[in-house]
UniProtKB/TrEMBL annotation:
Pfam families: MFS_1
Protein name, UniProt field: MFS transporter
Membrane topology note: Multi-pass membrane protein
Gene3D superfamilies in alphabetical order: MFS general substrate transporter like domains
Organism from which the protein derives: Petrotoga halophila DSM 16923
Record-linked PROSITE patterns: MFS (PS50850), SUGAR_TRANSPORT_1 (PS00216)
Length: 409
């Protein structure tokens, strides 16, 4: 039996999860390497690009939460198969798009597909290994899966640079075909699992919404998901435009740069796995956000290629640490039968707030200058650190209460 590191057997369930995450990451990076530049090449202004990204965030916020409930009730396998299929259609339409309307149409299809996938692989995996009596493995598998998938994404990003030579939109075509192929493969390799199937979809949606907002900790997590989008979406929106328009670098460098970012992101995920053995999950997320703040200051302070790469790598390292840590500690707070629903709710909250960020970032880039986008990212990371401190305090308070009850018995 293969082993990853010293203690994780690469059995069927784990390998299937790795497969899903790697394919998702590969498709996403084929798209992510060129999509902003693709819209610019097709004639959209920075503000119009911001409009497309804002609409994608609004669409994700609308679709993400109910699709999580759909996955719990009707099956996580079905949700993944349908999600990859619709996502592939959106990517192929994006590949052909040449005006604002068509880009908006494609991004809506993209949002539906991504919403059906969002949170579902993790929910499927956690419940599968829980049935097998191995729920403790998630603290090791999630960071490892993220790191492996990001390395794979880095390789794909490098390949996309080659694909883009002479045809910058070609990676989008490959991404669409890969999405379609993944949808077909998942039909044959996954077991189906569910959340709470006894309750109707409408009642589950209402019940979960009420329960989420009744919980102080979940409310803080939702707000944290929103503020965490400030730095993340500012970076996603700006880095390609910053390289091409501010630093005057060729679009040929985008794939190479994306590959560097993904390797650093993978290092961040692996580092999170090490840090989680020594620190509480929320504290590890705070460390990640601290690196994002330092990276944002670095880029804002100096308009140079060196400052950009140093600062951007610090941001990516911080994002990797926070992403991996939060994927572990958030699952510890969510009941199994509602896992996909709650994870989708967290994603939906981030998307609902996140639609503002591309509009603001695009306006700042066009009217004031790119440097102020990095200051916006800094502010977002500082706010998120403050919320994470509050979440950590709330979690410890609940834990101490449970321990006191157990001692009194």
């Amino acid at each position: 039996m293969w082993r990853f590191g010293k203690s994780i057997k690469l059995d069927s369930t784990i390998m299937k999860y790795y497969f899903i995450i790697m394919l998702y990451e590969g498709i996403d990076k084929l798209f992510g390497t060129v999509y902003v530049a693709h819209m610019g090449i097709r004639g959209l202004t920075s503000f119009q690009i911001g409009q497309v990204l804002a609409i994608s965030s609004i669409a994700l916020s609308i679709f993400d939460y109910p699709t999580g409930n759909i996955a719990d009730k009707y099956g996580r396998k079905r949700s993944l198969v349908l999600g990859f299929f619709i996502w592939s259609i959106g990517l192929l339409v994006f590949f052909q798009a040449s005006n604002l309307f068509t880009f908006i149409l494609s991004i809506l299809l993209w949002a539906v597909g991504v919403s059906l996938i969002s949170g579902t692989p993790g929910a499927w995996f956690v419940d599968e290994i829980t049935k097998e009596g191995r729920s403790h493995l998630k603290a090791k598998v999630f960071p490892n899966a993220n790191a492996i998938s990001l390395i794979f994404g880095a390789i794909v990003a490098l390949l996309s640079s080659l694909l883009a030579i002479g045809r910058p939109d070609f990676p989008l075509l490959v991404a669409g075909i890969m999405g379609l192929g993944t949808s077909i493969i998942l039909i044959f390799i996954l077991n189906e699992n569910y959340g709470d199937r006894a309750i109707s979809f409408r009642k589950a949606l209402v019940r979960n919404t009420i329960d989420i907002f009744k919980s102080t900790t979940m409310r803080l997590i939702l707000i944290r998901s929103m503020t965490g989008r400030i730095a993340f979406q500012t970076f996603v929106m700006i880095w390609q435009l910053y390289m091409v328009k501010e630093l005057k670098l060729s679009t040929a460098y985008l794939g190479f740069t994306m590959a560097i970012f993904l390797v650093v992101l993978a290092v961040g995920n692996s580092l999170a796995g090490i840090l989680l053995k020594r620190f509480e999950g929320v504290k590890v997320s705070i460390m990640g956000q601290g690196l994002i703040a330092i990276g944002s200051i670095t880029i804002a302070s100096h308009t140079s290629i060196v400052a950009f790469y140093i600062g951007a790598c610090l941001i990516e390292l911080g994002l990797g640490i926070d992403m991996s840590a939060s994927s572990v500690w958030v699952h510890d707070l969510i009941p199994s039968e509602r896992r996909a629903s709650y994870i989708s709710a967290i994603g939906a909250a981030g998307s609902l707030f996140g639609f503002i960020i591309p509009l603001v970032s695009g306006y700042i880039a066009d009217q004031i200058g790119f440097r102020y986008n990095w200051l916006l990212a800094l502010i977002g990371s500082i706010i998120t650190i403050t919320l994470l401190i509050k979440i950590g305090t709330a979690i410890r308070t609940v834990r101490e209460g449970v321990q006191n009850v157990e001692k009194s018995k």
